[in-house]
Amino acid sequence: VKIEDREHVLKELSSVGSISDFQFQGYGKDKEVRDLLASYYVTEYDGKPSVFAWLVDISDLKKIEQELIVAREAADEANRTKSDFLANMSHEIRTPMNAVIGMAYLTLQTELSSKQRDYVNNIQASAKNLLGIINDILDFSKIEAGKLDMEKAPFNLNETFNQLATLIYVKAEEKDLE
């Protein structure tokens, strides 16, 4: 037991009369350093001042506590790495998606058959929807990092449903659904 720990115990016992849950390190029977939890109470025994004390070896608990701290730090680091990856990937994917949307827009400015125009409109709508998903992924990583700012924005519900219909159009057509 360290001298400063002994001095602390004696000072507290003389001024307060008790100490609860005092943690310190001592040596076990095997001469190995052990983490201990002690409580001391000044009392009287056979008319003489005495100290009633008990000690509990908490070495295993301390070891588990340290392992949990290390595990949490590793989990936090893995979560940060995942969030960074999501943010980087969404930024990397947005650039070509914007190019697809832009090229579809330019293509729609040319002469096209109605079937071609329908295809390009579907490409553009699907690309915009995919860009929305990518932005949602980026927002998710911002939420995890505590950096998301919320805003109110008006939207057209009919347009949203039309975009949804365009998104599932090809799959529905493949299954001969209308």
From the alpha carbons, calculate the radius of gyration and give it in angstroms. Answer: 34 Å
Q: Work out the helicity level.
A: 55-70%
Alpha plus pi helix count: 4
Distance between the termini: 82 Å
Q: What is the fold's blueprint, element by element?
A:
Layout: H1 3-15, E1 18-27, E2 33-45, E3 48-57, H2 59-108, H3 114-145, H4 157-174
Antiparallel strand pairs: 1-2, 2-3
Helix pairs in contact: 2-3, 3-4
Question: How would you describe this protein?
Answer:
The chain has 178 residues and is α+β, with helices and mostly antiparallel strands. 63% of the residues lie in helices and 19% in strands. The chain contains four helices and three strands. It has helices spanning 3-15, 59-108, 114-145, 157-174; strands spanning 18-27, 33-45, 48-57. The chain has a three-stranded antiparallel sheet, sandwiched between helices. The longest helix is centred in the middle third of the chain and has 50 residues, at 59-108. The chain is rod-shaped, with a radius of gyration of 34 Å. The model has no long low-confidence stretch (mean pLDDT 88).
